[in-house]
Amino acid sequence: MNEFKLLLRKDFFIVRNNIRLILKNPLRLLPYAAVLAYFSFFYFRRGGRSQDMDASQLDTLQDAAGEVPEVDFAMQNVVGGLTLLALAFLMFQLYRATKKNISFFTMADVNFVFTAPVNPSNLLVYYMIRSIFPALGGSLIFILYSTAQLNDVFDLNAWNLIIMSLGFTFFFFIISPIRFLIYTLNTKYGILPYIRNGIFILGIVLALMVMIPGLMAEKFWQGMFAWIGSPWFDFFPLVGWSRGILSYVSHGNVWIPLGFSLVYIISFFLILFLVIAHAGAYYEDVLESTKSNEEVKEKAMGKAEASESTGSLNLKKKLNLPDFGTGAVALYWRNYVHSSRQDFHPLFGLYALGFAGIAIIMAVLSNFDWFSHKIIYGYLGVMIMMYFFAGMGRTSVGDLKKPFFILIPATWTSKFINMIKLDLYQTGLFGVGLILPAVLIAGLSWGLILLFPICLLAFYLTGFAITLTTQVGFDEGWDRKLIRPVIVVGVILFGILPSVAAGFFGYFITDKFVYGMLGLSIGMVLVATLMLHLTLDIISRVEFKEM
C-alpha cells in the first residue's frame, strides 16, 4: 500500500507543477477556453431550441415510428456502419499486438520509477489503472463534440453524457491491457502463430456476418448490416458492450449500461490477473516500445525530424534515371528519386493503386445494386479529406526540413514549384486513375473526371499552404502553437466551409452530385489560390534556420 501512496504522491506533484506553469503563463489556457466556449455555444443555443419539442411530441413521433412495419434501412446501416468501423479498429489493434508491445510508461518513468524501490507488479497495476483517466477525458471531449448537434433530438444532460462517455472510455481503455497480455503471452510461451490465426479467423467470421445477410437480401445494401446492426450484437465483446452503453440515450434504462459496465470491469480484472501472472520481468520488454512512443511524440511536436523512409517499399532499389537538368529542377529530381525508391513507380504507386481499386470495386458492385452511388460519392469525399491532411503533413519531411535548398541559384517561385511538382503529378494521376474507371463502370457524370482531380489538388495545396505558413512565418514556441490553430480555424471557417456550403447548395438545387462537386471545386480553387499567394510570399523569407 505504501508503494501506491508513493506513486500517487509522484503524480500529485506532476499535476501541481503543471498548474503552476499555467498560472505563470495564463496564455496556455487560451486553447482550452476556446474549446469550452465552442461547446457552451452549441449546447446553450441548441438546448434552448430543444425546448420547443416537449416530451409528448417526442412520444407521439416514437409511437408513429413504431406503427411502421418496414425496416428502417437507413438507421440500420448507420448503426451497422459505425459498428463495422469499431470492429475494424478492434481487429487492427489486435493485429498490432502481434507486432509490437504496448507501453504504459514514459522515458521519465523508465529512468526514475523503474529504478525506485517499487514492486514491478504493483507498478504495472498502478499504471494500467491510471490509464483510464486519459481515456475518460478524451472520450468525454469526443462525446461533447459529437453530440452537440443532437440536443434537438435527445434530452442530453450531464448524466447522459457521462454514461455515453463510459462506453467509449471502457472500449479504448481495455484495448491496451489486451494488447499487453497478448504480447506477454507470446514472449513467455511463443504462441504468436496461434494468436495470429485466431485473429485471422475472427476477421473472416466478422466479414461473413456482413456478406451473408447482404447476399440473402434483395439488395446487398439493405441486408449487409442486418446482423451486426441488430440488438443482439450488443452482447459481442467490447464493441457490442460499448454500443449497449451508448444506447442508453435512446431507451433510458440505466440497468443496461450498468450491466455492460460491470462486464467490462470484470473483464479488466481478469486480464489484469493474467498479466500479473505471466508478465514476469517486463521492464526490458516495454523499454523498446517506450522509447519508440517517445520518438513519435517528439516528431509530432516538431522536436525531431520525421524519417523520409517511412512507408517505403523498396529502399535498395537500383535506379537508372535520365538527366533532369540543373538549377531548381534538382529539387524535383530529389523527390523523384525518393519516390522511385519508396514505391514500384514514382508517379502511381501501390497505395494509389489500392485506393483506386476500392473505388472500382464499388463501381462494379453498384451495377448489381449492392452499393448505391451515394456510397461512391462518400468515398470520394473521404479521399479529398485524406489529401487535405496529407498536404498538412507534407512540410514535416523533404526539402522543407533542410534549409540548404535556399542556396540553389533559381527564383523562389521556381524552387517552390519544383518542391511540390511531383506531388501535383501524383495527386492528379491518382484522381484521374480513380474517377475515370468509376465513371465508366458505374455510369456517373462525366464532369467528375475533371472536377474530382481539381478538388484533390485544391484541398492538398490548401493543407500544404496552411502548415507551411505557420512553419516558416513563426519561430518555435507558443507563438507558433497558438497561431497555427487560429489560421487553421480561419481557413476552415472562411474558406473550406463556404466552399462546402456552395457544393451542398449546388447539389440540393439540381439534385446532382456533379453540380455539388462543381460548387466545391470553384470555392476551393479560390481558397488554394489565395493560400498559395501567401505561401509564395512567405517562402522567400526563409533563412538559415531549421524549420
Automatic annotation (TrEMBL):
- Pfam family, any one: ABC_export
Name the UniProt key words of this record, in alphabetical order.
Membrane, Transmembrane, Transmembrane helix
| Family annotation (InterPro entries) | Put_ABC_export
Q: Which residues form the signal peptide?
A: none
Keyword Oxidoreductase listed? The answer is no
What are the TM regions of this chain, as residue ranges? 26-44, 73-95, 124-146, 158-182, 194-212, 224-242, 262-283, 348-368, 374-392, 424-444, 450-474, 486-509, 515-539
What is the protein name for this chain? ABC exporter domain-containing protein
